[in-house]
Amino acid sequence: MIDANDNSKWREFKNKLFFRVVILLSGITISPIVLIVFHLLVKGYKQINFDFFTKVAPDTLQAMTAVRNGELIPGGIANGISGTLLMVLTASVMAIPVSVAIGIFLYENQGKRYTNLIRNLTDILQGVPSIVLGLIAYIWIVKGVTHGFSALAGSIALAIMMLPLIIRSTEETMKMIPVSIKEAGAALGVPYHKIILKVMIPTGASGLTTGILLSISRVIGETAPLMLTTLGSTAINLDITKPTSAVPLQIWEFYNNPNMIDLVWSSSLFLMGLVLTLNIIAKRISMKYSGNS
Amino acid sequence: MIKGALPAFREFGFGFIFSTDWNPTEGKESYGALPFIAGTLITSLLALAICFPLAFSTSLFIAEYFSKTKIASVLSTLVDLLAGVPSIVYGLWGFYTIRPLIAGLGYSGQGYGIFTSGLILAIMIIPYATSISNEIIAMVPNELKEAAYSLGATRLEVITNVILPNSRSGLVAGYILALGRALGETMAVTMLIGNANVIPTGFFSPGNTMASIIANQFGEAEGLKLSVLIAIGLLLFVVTAIVNAIGKMIIRKFA
Predict the structure, then answer these.
(1) CB A18 to CB B215 under 8 A?
(2) Please, what are the domains in chain A?
């Protein structure tokens, strides 16, 4: 059969062209991450020194004089680091037990009516923008409980953000554990709650840890909810009923203050380094886990 | 737990719901919410439009062209890293790097505006879109593709005629979820949108989104203003929840 209009050359051309376009666009897609990291490194490394971690943020006058003289801005972000640590720790203490428990509950009760309801609620929660969660924490805590901005409010907002992530990963982890392990425990006469505590959780430990680490890395960088709840402060503060600073909040403050702009880069570098490290650790753990089972 | 928030919203917003909801007034005095709704929608849709070709190509790269190769996993890891960047860092980078570029183009005075924020938003939602579309594209059965090849189809034709129709609903769901993420993004948009309480008129004009107005005004808000901000937050919550629910429903129906 002779086809007078053999267009295979044209089709071949389209094919090759599309292929090239795909490669090009994929390259463009990853360029931002490379650029961002590069930018942060170049601009940020100057301000990172020992003081960075141990001194609190300078006030405007100090910063202004330093910039005028072309020196490094004195001080560091110790108040931010301590605040972030405090709030993330508090949030974790609140969120981890609850969400692991809920995750196990969902796993144990598949298919029941309220299971699906809880799962849907979790999904909705995951989609809520962080600033809305900040508003909720504001209404509940800042207005309701402490009548003032506080680290507790910030921790609650962060905890709410951590919940869906940990719940989901806990449930998935539990699902991947072979049922035979559970049954072996039951066959040996182990009571139910002990099966969960001593058999399932240790087996799924790496999966759980991955989920926890990922959710922590997610909330460390959150700014918006903290803006509405803890307000920030200029001193190292360990009281959870008072306003506290946090690293992303400080970056926002530096950004808004023309004299402290230089500090923005080193703080961002630090923040990103923290987030990336947590992510890499989590990935390592999850790879080791799937390698073993 | 979650339901507890709603009565609080209502209690604050209710008395002022007449002056807030869907009132096409633009002056801040009457607290119309329309400019912010418009801002949110326009930036997010723009972000989705920009994100689509990028995310789709990357997904094809990872799941189809170079599927299961080393370079695909490298690429995949890099894209995941994009998701890990805190939004404030995106805002900073956008402010100091992208904005001068846009200003240099000459369209906008200082480079703020809808386009800039849409661009940054697009970069931020790419990882969410790619991770879902990667899986969907990889799920297309090999037999279908091989059948098409054996009939003499080129790679592109296999993609358009076999993979796309097969995975269409999954892909749509993925992009809808990415849209949901873009709707709620606060910090990066706040830093780039120019903070003007008007309905944006052109591609490069400044505006405001629901999230950014809350972030900007919350510090000094009280009384009526505060209730307005909270009502806007409620609106944002509802919109995001609906978009996400639609996306999840499509995925569930598909898989």
Answers:
(1) no
(2) 78-178+204-292 (1.10.3720.10)
* Superfamily of B34-137+173-254 according to CATH: MetI-like (1.10.3720.10)
The answer to whether the Cβ–Cβ distance between B81 and A222 falls below 8 Å is: no
Cα–Cα distance list, A26 to B52, B53, B135, B140, B155 (Å): 12, 9, 17, 21, 17
CB B240 within 8 A of CB B155: no
What is the token pair recorded at B11?
């209690």
Least CB–CB distance from A29: residue in B58, B89, B215: B58
Tokens standing for residue A226: 């903290």
Residue A235 CB neighbour total at 10 angstroms:
14
Among A1, A10, A26, A265, the residue to mutate for chain B (most B Cβ within 10 A): A26
Widest distance between CA atoms in chain B:
70
ipTM of the complex as predicted: 0.74
Answer for the pair A36, B85: CB distance below 8 angstroms, yes or no.
yes
Q: Write the residue in B54, B87, B244 that is nearest to A25 by C-beta.
A: B54
Binary contact (A128, B79; C-beta < 8 A) = no
Quote the CA–CA distance of A267 and A251 in Å, as a whole number.
6
pLDDT tens-place string over residues A52-103: 665 556 555 555 555 555 555 555 666 677 778 878 888 888 888 888 888 8
Phi, psi of A235 (to 5 degrees): -125, 160
- Residue A43 neighbours by CB under 8 Å, 6+ apart: A265
